[in-house]
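ARCHIVE CARD
Drawer: 12
Card no.: 0347
Subject: one protein chain, sequence and derived structure
Cross-reference: see card 0346
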Amino acid sequence: MNEFQPITVSRRSSREEREIALMQIYRQVLERVPYSYERKAMAKAERDFLSDKIGVRRFLKELGHSRVYLDSFYYSSANLKFLELCFKHFMGRAPLNRDEIRDYCDILMKQGVHHVITAILDSEEYRKVFGCFTVPYARQTKYYESPKAYLESDILNHEHVAQRGRAVPTLYWHQLGLNCEGGVCITIEGENPALQNYHPEMKEAEAPQGTRIQQELLELLHGLDAVEAQRLVASLHRKQDRA
């Protein structure tokens, strides 16, 4: 039986209850207790939250836009991995599919990182699931789009920071036939032909599934840094060291 109870604050919540909620927010979003200098950076937002001037969702925006969060995840991760982590931290699930990653990658490239955080927290799904006062948590829903959707969320929600590296989202390493346990990606059952035979001129209909996924990964990264994107995919030939 799942005995987990979401943490929700309201106008009637005591300061002690809000302090408990605050620590749970940090554990969900930062995946750890913040350092003292990080608490200082968040001091004003913390005071506003503890005094009931702002709710959970507003505090999450302050945290997501802060250097505390961005230094921990944005500047130390590839953009696609960062997007996956945003869904884990603020939505409590993995991205549903490559289309969702592509949509938010477009926001990231055209509008910037703050807009990505805002778009997630202002989304209809977030409002429906968490509202303004419930702390996000790792979700297990009754129904999933597919068995793979369940697998991706389960893997991601149990992943420690950098456990599977800071470059390739689970949605991709899983489909590319990689085992990334321990922060190092290796091909499963020997060589992966899809990782050795990348041909940009190959039409999608002619390309094997693994190669098409690889091409799509390159396309997403291309607008960010084409040279780095090529280097990243090449590094998946045998193994990828944790960033």
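Annotation on reverse: The CA atoms of residues 7 and 78 lie 31 Å apart. Confidence is low (pLDDT under 50) at residues 190-207, 222-230, 235-243.
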